[in-house]
Amino acid sequence: MPELIRLQTPDFEFSVWANDISQRLRVYQNTMAHRASANDVQPSYELRFAPAAQLSNAIEPQGLVADGLDKSALDESDLAENDLVANGLAKHAELTLNSPLFFENTQYQFEWVFFSEVTHARLTHRSQNVNEAFRFAPEVKTARGVVPARLTGTINTGNDVGWLRLPLTFEHNGKTQTQHIAFEVLPTKMALHQDLPAMYQAIDKVYPLWRFSLVEKTEQDAATSQHRGHFPLMWLANFAALRARFEQGLKVICAAPHSRLQPTVANIKAVNLKGRLPHKLAEKVKQDFANGQYDKRYAVEKKQLSVDTPENRFIKMAVSKSKRQLAEFEQKLRQSNQAPERQRLSDSFLNELHSWQQPLQKVLGQSFLKEVGTYTGLSRESLVLQQKTGYSAVYRVWQELKFYLDVFGNQSSISMKSVAEIYEVWCFLCLKQILEQDLGFELVENSAKKLTQNDFFEYQLKDGMRGAFRFKRADGVTARLAHEPTFNKASQIRSYLVNQKPDIVLEVTLPKTANSGSDSSEEKQFIWLFDAKYRIEDVKTNLENEFIGKPTEKDLKYWESKTDIEKESLDFTIVDGVPDDAINQMHRYRDALIRLSEPRFSKLRLPESPSSKIEGQPAKKSRPVFGAFALYPGFFDQATTPNPYAAAIEEVGIGAFALLPSQNGPSQNEFSQTESTQTKSRYSGHQWLLEFLQAQIGTAPNAQTGQNNEAMYPVAGMAERLYVQEAARIPYYGMRQVLYPDLTMTVALGGQRGRDNGYFEQFEQGTALWYHLPQSTFLQKFKQHIAEEIRYLALAS
What we know:
By secondary structure, the chain is of the alpha+beta class. It starts with a strand and ends with a strand.
């Protein structure tokens, strides 16, 4: 296992190992090269340290470190803006690398070797799984020498991308020290800062806050959010970032609480009255004494300093609510984390939540707050809250916690769901967008309201047909788009042995009047399945970009050894494809799902009623899936390049579509309101899928183009058009599949040129055995199976 990088500080030596990452680096560089035309910003690769680390040496065998760490050559002018100098060593908050080191789905080994005697060391990551992956070995003295203390562990990045933070805590000389090291885990199949933000934007429009997670390996900076409500995960992330400002402001307030002169009325006996009395009060006392009333009390108004001000009431309310929110958060998380199979959260994270409450509890125990009443709001703007030291800081933090301000910069970080989950839901919403914007469907039932919150305060989709989007088109065609529905033995479309759960199901239903089959009273339904696969494998194609197969190692090495110009002269290309098991899974889905329908009399045209059913007869079985396709993040210019799986899709209804956010302009907004046809001048990320769906179910009727447009079929012929496709006409060996048992071809009898009179006399006498027509008539316009289904011939002479 080669060493990637080794850093030395006065306290420890930090090393990272991994298996050969050259393959992932090559894929990443190819991905970024494809994006170069659409993204002029050069990516930077950094290690971040908090607090800033004193780096005395860096050993990087592959020349990966860009920042020089030569102590003798260290000059203050060479330091980065956020670097400091202490004890002759540069204190780096960031260390720039020449090349990326950390990628998704890669296993890394980390080791800290301590130079001094360290009694204990551990990671305090929020994820229990990350912490448990590390083991501390104390210093051991042997006959051969001293084996220093070390902390070692491995992390598989999986599909988690973003900043992975390793919060190291170690004890030395009775003191606890911390050193956080963070690095960015990059995806190899898409651009982290280009494709993912476009996906986030699309998901946030339909499923606000779904993408956030409480605890994952990595975190990302919180970007723009239009949500205005209470979401505990976002509140916690913001509180963690703003906590220092919040506590510092409270310290200033406790040291010098705001007070103001407020009038108070006290009933005092005459003997206790002091000082100069108002004229009216003096006359009143004098009159009462004359009447012999010596024990009477008099209302005296005085002004004294009081801390019971609206500003202090606000402070008490903000501290109380924050304390209560943290306490409830901790209680629910500890309760949810008790089950052994659900222990996602580390003890250090839960203890950190508890420690955040201590300063707030201390503030609530201040004597001056005991004199402060209940907050009832502010009757007018308060200059104290806006300008006074301490109060203004707390007031601004509270507003950010309350409203989740749009721009957080690098201040707050929050975990996201894995990029595989993000890609899957984005593909689901991309299909929704195609149905609405390109195929003319109108949303009639929205599943966005059906998000549920789990025990870890994370939003989850309501999967299955109950949480499906429902659409309707002007021509009466309806559609359902479902995420992860389960097909089992009890459903109408069932799997007899093993439950099947495809990622995306598109079900299209034609109106009864549009069916031209033998039973027009029965609705026709067509199903297409899609599985989002966040995986890519190299595939070999010919010069027309038609799929050939999986390349050999020799093919790959030969391809990589050529320049871009030399590759153009080769008789094959290497492009992005899906793994073999993804295609096999599509075959499994289509083969496993069977539709059960009630048997009915075929000759009678009866209305829908129980009497039209055949009692005691087994259900009629049919195969409902007209196509199953993998969706993968392959990069192609789909406006000019054919789909490598197009031939297989046409022949057998199995294949794959590359799907990535399009780059139609500077906004990089996949779901912006644009024309239905993709802009040819920029990269188109879903044109293959769009063209396929247009060919299958057409678009909305358009008075300007009419029905002569090939993409706009009459609804009455849609079912027939789907049934006669090559993929839908494959019978079992030895059997035939017939759509119309009495299919008749009407055709005019050809001219006499080149044929004798006997040929025509046989037709007139009814003894003709053959009718000749050009072979291209069926090979080009129709398929061979249609010619084989013809039973009758009607000739016009």
